[in-house]
Specification:
Organism: Tetracentron sinense
Protein name: BTB/POZ and MATH domain-containing protein 3
Low-confidence stretches: 1-14, 388-398, 407-421
Largest sheet: 5 strands, antiparallel
InterPro entries: BACK_BPM_SPOP (IPR056423), BPM1-6 (IPR045005), BPM_C (IPR034090), BTB/POZ_dom (IPR000210), MATH/TRAF_dom (IPR002083), SKP1/BTB/POZ_sf (IPR011333), TRAF-like (IPR008974)
CATH topology of the largest domain: Apoptosis, Tumor Necrosis Factor Receptor Associated Protein 2, Chain A
Distance between the termini: 105 Å
Number of strands: 13
Pfam families: BACK_BPM_SPOP (PF24570), BTB (PF00651), MATH_2 (PF22486)
Oligomer: single chain
Structural class: alpha+beta
Function: May act as a substrate-specific adapter of an E3 ubiquitin-protein ligase complex (CUL3-RBX1-BTB) which mediates the ubiquitination and subsequent proteasomal degradation of target proteins.
Helix content: 40-55%
Mean pLDDT: 82
CATH class of the largest domain: Mainly Beta
Radius of gyration: 37 Å
Shape: elongated
Length: about 425
C-alpha cells in the first residue's frame, strides 16, 4: 500500500506544470504598403497617334517598394479591336520580380482647374478583391479601354496637345514584429512645469506688466508664441519689439497672474490659490474673469477650459452673471447650460431674485426673450405634471414667468417697462 501511494505521488508531480512568464513569447505579422507616385506628362499627343495598335510610349522608370515601374500609354489602343476607339494605359513591372503584390491608381488630370480628374483606383477595391499580383517582369495592370479617343480629344484633359497623369503604386510588404528586447520607462512631459518655474524665477524676462498695484515679469517670445494679441503687440507690423513695459487696465492682478500661469504651463491654474479664497462663489467669479481675459488675448484653449468649468459650477446665485458672460464672449455651450438651469421650475424664482439677474436685464436684455423661450420648452415638457399639481408653488412659478415677460418688454425709446401682467 505504501509503495503504490508513493508511485502515484511521483506520477502526479511529473504531470503538474508551472507557467513561467519569462518563457512566454509573442509576435505579430504586419501587412502594409510602401507607396510612391510618379507624375507623367505626354506632350504632342496628336503626333503620337497613328503608330498602330499595340505600340506604346512609356514614362521613365521609377522605383517603389524596391521595384522599378513604368507607365505605358497606347495612343491607338493595346488591342487591334480597340485601335480606332480607345487609348490604353498600363502600369508595368519593369524589373525582375516574382509574384509582386501591389495596389494601383491612375489619375488623368483635368487641366481646366475644375478638379474633375478621372480616377481609376485599385486602392478602393483592396478589401474586396485584394492586391493585384504581377507574376514576372513585364506584367501589367491597367485599362485597355482607358478613355474613348473622340471624347478625350474634346475634353479638358487635353490642353495644348498635352496630357498629364499621376500614377500611384503601393507595393505590399509583410513584416514580423517580436517583443522588444528592452523596456525603457518614459516619464510624462514636464515642459509646462519647467516653463512655469521659469516664469516664477523671472530669469531672462524682458517685459514688465503693470496691472493695478502689482507688476509681473514675463518673456515676450513665450507670450507671442501663445497669444496672437501679444504677437501683434510685440512683433506685428505696428508692434514694438523694444517695448519693455505694458500697462494693463480693466483686468485684476490675480486674473492676469492666473492667465500668465496658463500661458506658460498650458493648464488651468488653481483659481482658489490665485483668488485667495476657497468659496465656490468666489471661485466662479474668478473663472468668469479669466474667461473674459482669455477672450481678450485670444487664448482659445483657456477660454474653453473656463467654459467647461463654469458649466460644472452653475448655481442659482451665479447663473445670471455667467449667462451674460456667455452671451458677451460667444460661449454657445455655456449659454445653453445656463438657460436650461435658469428655466428649471425649481431655480427660476431664486434666479430672478439674485443680484446677477439685475445685471443680466441691464447688460443683455435680449437674453430675457431667450429665457422665456426656454421656459416655454420646459413647461411644454412638463405640462402633464403641471396639470395634475395645481398648487400654490405652480402659481408662483407662473407669476415669475409673467414678471419675466414684463421685464423683457421695452418701450419705443428702449427703456425697460416693469409691470405685472
Amino acid at each position: 500500500m505504501m509503495v503504490n501511494f508513493g508511485s502515484d505521488l511521483v506520477v502526479n508531480k511529473r504531470r503538474s506544470s508551472i507557467s513561467d512568464p519569462s518563457l512566454d513569447s509573442c509576435s505579430k505579422s504586419i501587412n502594409e504598403t510602401v507607396n510612391g507616385t510618379h507624375h507623367y506628362t505626354i506632350k504632342g499627343y496628336s503626333l503620337a497617334k497613328g503608330m498602330g495598335s499595340g505600340k506604346y510610349i512609356s514614362s521613365d522608370l521609377f522605383t517603389v517598394g524596391g521595384y522599378q515601374w513604368a507607365i505605358y500609354f497606347y495612343p491607338d489602343g493595346k488591342n487591334p479591336e480597340d485601335s480606332s476607339m480607345y487609348v490604353s494605359v498600363f502600369i508595368a513591372l519593369a524589373s525582375d520580380g516574382t509574384d509582386v503584390r501591389a495596389l494601383f491608381e491612375l489619375t488623368l488630370l483635368d487641366q481646366s482647374g475644375k478638379g474633375k480628374h478621372k480616377v481609376h483606383s485599385h486602392f478602393d477595391r483592396a478589401l474586396e478583391s485584394g492586391p493585384y499580383t504581377l507574376k514576372y517582369k513585364g506584367s501589367m495592370w491597367g485599362y485597355k479601354r482607358f478613355f474613348r479617343r473622340t471624347t478625350l480629344e474634346t475634353s479638358d484633359f487635353l490642353k495644348d496637345d498635352c496630357l498629364s497623369m499621376h500614377c500611384t503604386v503601393g507595393v505590399v510588404r509583410t513584416r514580423v514584429e517580436g517583443p522588444k528586447p528592452y523596456t525603457i520607462s518614459i516619464p510624462p512631459s514636464d515642459m509646462g512645469q519647467s516653463l512655469k518655474e521659469f516664469l516664477e524665477s523671472g530669469v531672462g524676462s524682458d517685459i514688465i506688466f503693470e496691472v493695478g498695484d502689482e507688476t509681473f515679469k514675463a518673456h515676450k517670445l513665450i507670450l507671442a508664441a501663445r497669444s496672437p494679441v501679444f504677437r501683434a503687440q510685440f512683433f506685428g507690423l505696428i508692434g514694438n519689439p523694444d517695448m519693455d513695459k505694458v500697462v494693463l487696465e480693466d483686468v485684476e492682478p490675480s486674473v492676469f497672474k492666473a492667465m500668465l500661469v496658463f500661458m506658460y504651463s498650458d493648464e488651468l491654474p488653481d483659481v482658489n490659490e490665485h483668488s485667495g479664497s476657497i468659496s465656490t462663489c468666489t471661485s466662479t467669479i474668478m473663472v468668469q474673469h479669466l474667461l473674459a481675459a482669455a477672450d481678450r488675448f485670444d487664448l482659445d484653449r483657456l477660454k474653453l477650459l473656463c467654459e467647461a468649468k463654469l458649466c460644472d459650477e452653475v448655481t442659482a446665485d451665479t447663473v445670471a452673471t455667467t449667462l451674460a458672460l456667455a452671451e458677451q464672449h460667444h460661449c454657445s455651450q455655456l449659454k445653453t447650460v445656463c438657460l436650461k438651469f435658469a428655466a428649471a421650475p425649481g431655480n427660476l424664482g431664486v434666479v430672478m431674485q439674485s443680484e446677477g439677474f439685475k445685471y443680466l436685464e441691464e447688460s443683455c436684455p435680449s437674453l430675457l426673450s431667450e429665457l422665456l423661450q426656454t421656459i416655454a420648452v420646459v413647461d411644454e415638457n412638463s405640462s402633464l405634471l403641471l396639470s395634475r399639481k395645481r398648487s400654490g408653488s405652480n402659481n408662483f412659478g407662473l407669476n415669475l414667468a409673467a414678471d419675466l415677460a414684463a421685464v423683457a418688454s421695452v418701450d419705443p425709446n428702449g427703456r425697460h417697462m416693469r409691470r405685472r401682467l
